[in-house]
């Protein structure tokens, strides 16, 4: 395959840190073994169809700035086929093993529901052929339930049951497409599941509707034998003022309330975490502590901008903190590291797509090496273990086992008096991290 990215004739090589070639990896060495697994096994990167191939550079102030060769066809289906070919050419040359899509990225919406379904089926067949030809696999599929005007007031949370039914029917086909392509996960991001004003909104009703939609998805997956992991991707705002899947803690609570915990994990996105006023590591930790960290979208925001800029990950600190969480939970299982990132409006070339992904992969590869070193040296974990050591002694154990009371605590204080204040040593710990970076 060498039709759309002729500036990159073969695969991107690993050349090591001395290389100055912008079309080579300096850290990402797929076969390199890190703590018993290859880099490729640790870092299951996935290219996002929507940003990388359907992204146009458009922003709220202006239209498309990218002129992609795969868009230079007259019919929507011809554009879709060329885009699919470009995807597999790009992903193969980059040396990534996975991709992700929304149904409407892969195939255009038709005039009727059944035409949309026919378009999707035709594109799934083509994608399947390309998957077989290249060995590239599907990390996850999802349905676009936010682009079409019918979803203006939400999909599953819509006040009109007619729209709910449309969304459910669309998801049915998106799950079937994911299943047909052996997708390892299926993602729900609640595009317009939220509200802009409480004056016209019944939140309680909308939450119950959404729960029913998820239960239907679980039932349908069981019926067709789809065993991929269902994932919910939290986001606090944008496009609606208040999205229901605000952050990891909110989604975990929703899953428990509506008896869905057994069927779902979380897909944590870096820029969604920062929009919620959290760090990426905070959100990953909340999900991981609950045993629910399934996958991640690894873009980043810009601290000076208040919206979802979906930039490529280049911040080494953020990626090291993320990999510490991932390594400590023993990897992401069937999940991966989906870019969900777009080049900036001014980065108009197809070669910019390579620079962007290579940079992101190298940053995470470097972060993997650093996080592995931090964990194996044990300085940070030893400090944390010491900080909490009293909880593994007699009184601490009694409390955690539920065998303590206020009276017992009072007796303890009468015996031991004032506690000795200990240093949290934040600056020392930050220095330790810097010593690895
Ligand atoms: C939107 C977002 C989506 C999801 C998939 O902010 O992150 O692209 O990842 O629908
Ligand atoms: Co995302």
Quick recap of the structure?
With 437 residues, the chain is an alpha/beta fold. The protein contains 16 helices and 12 strands. It folds into 2 domains: 33-377, Alpha-Beta Barrel (TIM Barrel), CATH 3.20.20; 388-436, no CATH class.
Account of the protein in words:
There is one protein chain. The chain folds into two domains: 33-377, TIM Barrel, CATH 3.20.20.150; 388-436, no CATH class. Helix content is 46%, strand content 10%. The protein is built from 16 helices and twelve strands. The strands form three sheets. An eight-stranded parallel beta barrel has the order 3-4-5-6-8-10-11-12. A two-stranded antiparallel ribbon has the order 1-2. The chain binds D-xylulose and cobalt (II) ion. Cobalt (II) ion binds next to loops.
Give start-end ranges of low-pLDDT stretches.
none
Strands side by side in the biggest sheet? 3-4-5-6-8-10-11-12
Number of β-strand runs: 12
CATH architecture of the largest domain: Alpha-Beta Barrel
Rg over CA atoms, rounded to whole Å, is: 24 Å
Number of domains: 2
H/E element order: EEHEHHEHHEHEEHEEHEHHEHEHHHHH
| Shape, principal axes of CA atoms | globular
> Would you identify the CATH H-level superfamily of the largest domain?
Divalent-metal-dependent TIM barrel enzymes
C-alpha termini separation: 38 Å
Biggest sheet, open or closed, and with what strands and sense? 8 strands, parallel, barrel
Average predicted local confidence, pLDDT: 98
What portion of residues belong to β-strands? 5-15%
In this entry the ligands are: D-xylulose, cobalt (II) ion
Share of helix among residues?
A: 40-55%
């Amino acid at each position: 395959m060498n039709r759309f990215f002729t500036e990159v004739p073969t695969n991107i090589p690993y050349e090591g840190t001395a290389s100055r070639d912008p079309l080579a990896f300096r850290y990402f060495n797929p076969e390199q073994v890190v703590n018993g697994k290859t880099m490729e096994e640790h870092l299951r990167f996935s290219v996002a169809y929507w940003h990388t191939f359907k992204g146009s550079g458009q922003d709220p102030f202006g239209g498309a700035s990218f002129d992609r060769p795969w868009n230079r066809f007259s019919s929507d289906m011809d554009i879709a086929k060329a885009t699919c070919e470009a995807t597999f050419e790009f992903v193969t040359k980059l040396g990534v093993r996975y991709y992700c899509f929304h149904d409407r990225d892969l195939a255009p919406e038709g005039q009727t529901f059944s035409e949309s379904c026919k378009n999707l089926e035709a594109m799934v067949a083509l994608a399947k052929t390309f998957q077989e030809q290249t060995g590239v696999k599907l990390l996850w599929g999802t349905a676009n339930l936010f682009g079409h005007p019918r979803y203006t007031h939400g999909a599953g949370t819509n006040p009109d049951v007619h729209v709910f039914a449309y969304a459910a029917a669309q998801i049915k086909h998106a799950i079937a497409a994911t299943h047909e392509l052996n997708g390892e996960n299926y993602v729900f991001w609640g595009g317009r599941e939220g509200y802009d004003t409480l004056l016209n909104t019944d939140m309680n009703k909308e939450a119950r509707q959404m729960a029913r939609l998820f239960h239907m998805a679980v039932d349908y997956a069981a019926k067709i034998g789809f065993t991929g992991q269902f994932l919910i991707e939290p986001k606090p705002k944008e496009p609606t003022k208040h999205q229901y899947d605000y952050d990891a803690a909110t989604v975990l609570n929703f899953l428990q309330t509506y008896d869905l915990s057994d069927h779902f994990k979380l897909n944590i996105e870096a820029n969604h975490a920062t929009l919620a006023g959290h760090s990426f590591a905070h959100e990953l930790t909340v999900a991981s502590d609950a045993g629910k960290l399934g996958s991640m979208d690894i873009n980043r925001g810009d601290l000076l901008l208040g919206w979802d800029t979906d930039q490529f990950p280049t911040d080494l600190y953020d990626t090291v903190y993320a990999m510490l969480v991932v390594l400590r939970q023993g990897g992401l299982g069937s999940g991966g590291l989906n870019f969900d990132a777009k080049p900036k409006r001014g980065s108009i070339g197809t070669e910019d797509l390579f620079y962007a992904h290579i940079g992101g992969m190298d940053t995470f590869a470097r972060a993997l090496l650093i996080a592995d070193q931090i964990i194996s040296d044990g300085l940070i974990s030893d400090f944390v273990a010491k900080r909490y050591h009293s909880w593994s002694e007699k009184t601490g154990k009694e409390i955690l086992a539920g065998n303590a009371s206020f009276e017992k605590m009072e007796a303890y204080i009468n015996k031991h008096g004032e506690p000795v204040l200990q240093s949290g040593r934040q600056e020392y710990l930050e220095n330790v991290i810097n010593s690895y970076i």
